[in-house]
Write a structure and sequence with these properties.
The protein is mainly beta. Helices cover 5% and strands 41% of the residues. It has one domain (2-223). The strands form two sheets. Strands 1, 2, 5, 6, 9, 10, 12, 13 and 14 form a nine-stranded antiparallel sheet that branches. Strand 5 (92-98) and strand 6 (106-108) form a beta hairpin. The longest helix has 6 residues, at 2-7.
């Protein structure tokens, strides 16, 4: 598992995401942001998120949705060396955001409950699907963060079960990440929020795939990994 977590933080994304400018420092591959140093910025809360995009060349599938579940964080204590789960929920919430996040513009997503606690949504036409936990931001001791891992699972499903099965035609790229916040309730504006890191974007299929982001290198993850259940790897 440590190797898989570390692999999601090196190299390049499996493909290019539609509408993401090449000048963005996460456009081509994963990277750590604030990482394990929230205290430097006065951050006292954290939240997990995921994002799903069409491939840069588009996605020909029409009768499809993206289904997501089991989002959450694992936070390593510097003092105790123990991991704890935070901001975790089976169901997810989310919205459609402009693909380059210009002005943080968003619109209400077409959310639908799915079996097993999953929630699905549609995307495209210049909008991604940005998802997050249904739970509030998790409080943290900013001086005690030794590592952060974000996870969630996603797959492609049919929009209309009675329509054509185009799941194999879907070209969706998904990645995981997390944000630090000044506190649990502050709104998003300059200086109040910054990302912990952004994981590798992978193509989704009709099988569940776990997307991850980690702030720790392989040697540290191998010595002390969090107890995460990983579903399928792409």
């Amino acid at each position: 598992m440590a190797g898989l977590l570390a692999h999601d933080m090196v190299g390049q994304h499996a493909g290019r995401m539609h509408g993401v400018p090449s000048t963005y420092n996460w456009a081509k591959g994963p990277r750590v942001g604030v990482g394990n140093h929230p205290a430097r910025h006065g951050f006292t809360a954290v939240s997990a998120w995921g994002q799903v995009y069409e491939d840069a060349a588009g996605s020909p599938a029409r009768n499809v949705r993206v289904s997501c579940k089991d989002i959450g964080l694992w936070i390593l204590s510097r003092r105790t060396g123990r991991w704890r789960s935070a901001n975790a929920s089976k169901r997810v919430n989310g919205a459609n955001y402009v693909e380059d996040f210009a002005g943080n513009a968003s619109k209400t997503a077409d959310l639908r409950d799915e079996p097993g606690g999953a929630v699905s949504a549609t995307l495209g036409g210049g909008w991604n699907f940005h998802l997050y936990s249904i739970r509030g931001r998790a409080p943290i001791d900013p001086h005690d963060v030794g590592g952060v891992v974000a996870v969630y699972s996603a797959r492609v499903i049919m929009d209309d079960p009675n329509g054509p099965d185009e799941r194999h035609l879907a070209r969706y790229l998904a990645s995981a990440g997390a944000d630090y916040w000044l506190d649990r309730y502050v709104g998003a504006q300059a200086g109040t929020v910054a990302d912990v890191g952004i994981g590798k974007a992978r193509y989704l299929t009709s099988e569940w795939l776990t997307l991850t982001m980690s702030t720790l290198p392989l040697r540290k993850l191998a010595k002390n990994p969090p107890t995460i259940c990983l579903r399928g790897r792409g």
